[in-house]
Amino acid sequence: MAVPQRLVITGATGFIGSAVLTELARIRDARERGRSGPPRLSLRAVGRAAPEADGRADEWCQADLSEPGSLRGCCDGADVLVHLASRIGSDEEECAAVNVTGAAALMAEAQKAGVRRIVHLSTSAVYGQGPHRGIAVDAVVPAPLSPASRTRLAGEGPALAAGAVVLRPGLVIGSGDRWVVPALEQLLAATGALWGGGRALLSVVAVGDLARLIARLALGHGPEGGTVWHASHPVPVRAAELVGALTEWGVLPEVGEDVSEAECLERMAAAGCPVSPRQFRLVSQDHWYDSAPVWAAAGCSPGPGALACLDEAALWYREYLRRG
What we know:
It contains 10 helices and 15 strands. By secondary structure, the protein is an alpha/beta fold. The strands form 5 sheets. The chain has a 7-stranded parallel beta sheet, sandwiched between helices. A two-stranded parallel ribbon has the order 6-15. Helix 2 packs parallel to helix 3. It is globular and about 60 Å long. The N and C termini lie far apart (50 Å).
């Protein structure tokens, strides 16, 4: 019997990580049904809490990126590391413990174990304040503004040194998104308007499409390691289109007023909106990045676009926002 290809996945219980684990499990099960094809996959999830016992992961390794010693041996026997875990928050020290120190320790484990392929998830937020219009990787100097994005940029260093393919997606939407669409809902509730006519162009990707790309890269397709790639859908989406589609699906309230960014910021402050001005500008100004190269390099179709996923995600969003 052929030796299985062993993949280690961090962040498997998170928003993006769960989607990637599902996609890899689908590929594994398809290979099992066609035994004459490629070698079977063995999926090892690494994290603080085990994913649901639903058959997606073949084994579970309990470890905490904020405690580097707990990672010892997590990559032993593995061929591929897919690092999707990160800390997103306002505490610089906590973010650094996971996104920098933890990432470096994990990469050291991968190198010690002889892992041949690494995919590392970062974010386009490392570029900081826009507007950014169709830029290539590092066409502007990264200037992250938040603890999460600063430490995620710093965490790219040890990943690249270990030979990782580093991905920087923009806004990721779909079932499980607790950041992008909830923030839009808070903005609309505070402003009652669409900022600047919603003309801003945004890099957006559906979580399922991003998961397909990551899985394909993990299985050896596409670019060599030690490289950075933008990983959104190649076609940017206007803010008005995103809000309009979510409104049509009953996720966001309908707004008819169109006011300036400055007026929106004033209304946000008056309403005590939890979305910061920095976060607001991510959707009120152009923030889109040339993402076509990675899909071409991986030989992976980007699909019809992020808005096409909303028929599947709308129910999840409605229930999540209602609970909030």
